Amino acid sequence: MEITASLVRDVGATPAVIGGLDRARQWEEAAGFVIALAFAGVNPQSAVPAVS
User: Are 1 and 7 in contact (CB under 8 A)?
Assistant: First the structure.
């Protein structure tokens, strides 16, 4: 998990632990939703709350 967190920090983002691999499918679907918003010209932050 620390390697992934390091890679996330390297690209300027903040890593957040949001679950294990048992939740990967749900997060994949959520990512697809966010990507679709971005391609449609909608700011994804308007639909997805910030994770602190």
Answer: no
